[in-house]
Design goal:
Length: about 260
């Protein structure tokens, strides 16, 4: 009998965004199902008796999230992992309140997913952990997911957007982001500008400044710390760019927005 028996619920609307997973280890078995039918999934759970369920999304929509919530309610003893291209704080909060064990941002190496599954399996096997209970059974799905993701799916550079949202605090090299999108840097730069009406560098700066504005609402934080937390190389370049885009120094913005 396999030690880890996974039910993999594949909900990506674009197959190119599906998470690759493989394992040469005999103790891991993966059964994939492509369905949003709760009854069909329940029958599969009854038949295969998985000890872990993985939901694989690219851009979640309401039916897909409702399915996850229902499966959590119907099978509270089976831990759930959620994988998605969507880096969204509200969605992550919703997922954990719904009882998800981990919320993973794609793209991920297959080995990383296997390692995550192995670690969770060890925790469940050797620790006296109770099933995670839904904190809010009727936790509302974030309103931004009630629209259609079709427009996002049509953009060839959407993985670059998600990468910036997940890694804005780190050093980001445009050539490496282009590679993630499967393009040369020249093709990526042209397509990114066509799709977003802004260069990739401008988008990165604006995203970091947006994050900095949130940090600056904390009266205890220093400008140097905000620069570092937002992904800027140093406080002086941060202050210069902040003034250019916002029209005032970070310190002035902080004083103005402290309650």
């Amino acid at each position: 009998m396999r030690d880890i028996n996974i039910l993999w619920i594949a909900l990506c609307k674009n197959n190119k965004n599906a998470q690759p997973i493989f394992s040469r280890k005999n103790e891991i078995a993966v059964h994939k199902i492509y369905s949003v039918d709760t009854n069909q999934i329940t029958c599969t759970i009854t038949k295969n008796k998985p000890n872990l369920i993985c939901f694989d999304y690219d851009f979640p929509d309401v039916p897909g999230l409702q399915l996850l919530r229902q499966i959590r309610l119907d099978h509270p003893g089976i831990p759930v992992i959620m994988l998605t291209l969507q880096h969204n704080e509200n969605l992550a909060v919703w997922a954990f309140r719904t009882g998800v064990r981990n919320y993973l941002i794609k793209p991920l190496e297959a080995e990383s997913v296997i390692e995550e599954i192995n670690q969770l399996s060890i925790q469940l096997r050797f620790r006296s952990t109770k099933p995670r209970v839904n904190l809010l059974r009727r936790c509302q799905i974030p309103k931004e997911f009630h629209g259609s993701p079709t427009a996002l799916l049509s953009k060839r550079t959407i993985q670059a957007i998600n990468y910036v949202q997940a890694h804005f605090q780190e050093k980001i090299i445009e050539k490496e982001v282009a590679s993630i999108c499967g393009m040369s840097i020249f093709t990526f730069s042209r397509i990114f500008r066509n799709e977003h009406n802004i260069t990739f560098r401008e988008f990165l700066i604006k995203h970091r400044i947006m994050q900095a504005k949130e940090f600056l609402h904390n009266p205890e934080i220093t400008i140097t710390d905000v620069a570092q937390l937002s992904g800027f190389a140093d406080a002086s370049s941060f202050a210069r760019l902040f003034r250019r885009y916002i029209g005032m120094a970070p310190s002035c913005y902080q004083r103005k927005h402290i309650n």
